[in-house]
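Sample entry as discussed:
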Amino acid sequence: MAVSGGEVRPAPELRADGEGRPIERTSLGAPLTLLVRVALDVAALAAAVGLAFVLRFELGVLELHDATFDLAAHLAVSGLWLAGVVGAMATYRLYDEDTLAPGSAELRRVRRALVEGIALVAIAVFLFQFFSVSRGWFALVAGLSLLFLSVERRAVGAAIGRLRERGHLRRPAILVSGSDAVLTDADASPDEFDVVARVHPDDLGPALSPERDGAFRRMGAPVVVIDGTGIEHDDFWHLVLLAGQAGSSVFVRSPVREVAPDRLTTRNLAGHTIMKVAPPALNGFRAFEKRTFDLAVSFLLLLIFAVPMAFIALAVLITSGAPVFYSQQRVGREGKVFKMWKFRTMRHGAETESGPVWAERDDPRRTPAGRILRRLSLDELPQLWNALRGDMSLVGPRPERPLFVTQFSGGNAWYRFRHRIRPGITGLAQVRGLRGDTPLEPRVQSDNWYIEHWSLTLDGRILLRTVAEVLRGRNAA
C-alpha cells in the first residue's frame, strides 16, 4: 500500500517471479521464525556433542590419557555448553532478523559466542572443578560445534535468500522521503525488503498507527527506511524516535551504491555520523593475492590440459586445416589492447564480408570441430597462456574487441569501469548465463559488482560454477 496525505491506498503491483506469476507476501511470523532458528542451532550443537562422544570414546580420537568416563558429568557439561553457547548467541544478536541478511558478520559473531561458551565450561570444569570430563572430548565438542553451526547458519541463510527471491519472508518496509522523485521511484525493492508504503515525513505517524486497516496491522511493525532527501536534521531524528516508539527497526537510505560491508566504516564529525567508503581498488596486497592465484592455477591447468589441448589442436588441423590457433585484438586493463588466443572454430575469412560481428547460436561459419569446442567452451583453453603472461586473469570481466568497446562505452556510462582490472577467462556474468548475445546492462552490473566485492573465495566459487555452466551450455554460440 502507499500512503499520501494521510490516506492509505493500494501499493503498486509486486514484482512477478521468473515465470511471470505474481509474488505473494508470506511470513512465518517472528516468534515461529525465532523458535525454528533456536531449534536448528540447538540441533547443530547437540549433533556436535553426540559425534564428539563417538569419536572420543568409541574411536579413541584425541585420547590424551586414560580417564574414567563419568556419563553424568559429561551430560551436565553438555547441557552447560548448549545453554552457554545459545545464550551467548542471543547476546550477540544472532537471533535478530538482521542476521538473516548477507553482510551481517554472522559467522564472526558465532565464533565469539563459541569463545564465550568455551570460557564458561573452562571456568566450571578446569577452574572450579565442578565436573571431571575428558579434555579431548571437549576439544572435539568445540571444534565440531564451530563446523556444524557454520554449515547450518550458511544453509539457513541460503534457504532464506532463495525464499526471498521468490517473494517469501520479506520484511515489509515503509520508505520515508521529502522528495516526490524518491517516493515515485518504481525500482524494485531489495530482496530482503518489500516496500509496502511510500510516505512523506508528515505521514509516517498515520502510517504506523495501530488504527490502520487489518491487513496493514497483520504485517507487524514494518521496517522504516528513511531517505534524507528534503528532511531537516531535527525532523530526521523525530522520525527515528517515532519509528522506535512504534516498534519498528530504522534504516537510513544511503546515496552510496551497493558496497561490501568490509569497505564501510563510520566516524563522527561535528555531531554528525559520516561514512568512509573505501574505494573498490584491486591493488596492493589484494592484487598480489589475485595475481599469485592466477599464476599458480593457470600453470597447474596448463599441465592438466596439455594432452587434451594437443588432441584438440590435432582435431582442428584435421577437420579444417591450419592455423590451429586464432588471435584477436581485445581491450584489457586500463584500456590496453592485447592479443587474445583461442582454438580456431570458424572457417577461414569468416568476417571478410561482414566485418566484426557477434557469433550467433548455431553460427553457420563454425567448423565441424568448432561446433563441439564452442559448445563446451574448450576453444577458450589457450587463454590460460594469456593468464600466465598477465594479459588476463582466470576470473574477471570478459574482454571485448576495440570496436565493440567503443560502441558499448557510448551507450553505458558504467562500461568503462570494467577495465579497472585484468579481463577474465570466465566471470560472474558468464556463470549467471550472461554470455554471447545477451543484454549488456546486466552483464555490466555483474562485472562491476564482481570488481567491488572481489575475494579469493569469490574467484574459487566462480571457477567451480563455470564448470557447471559449461556443462549446461546456456547461450553458448
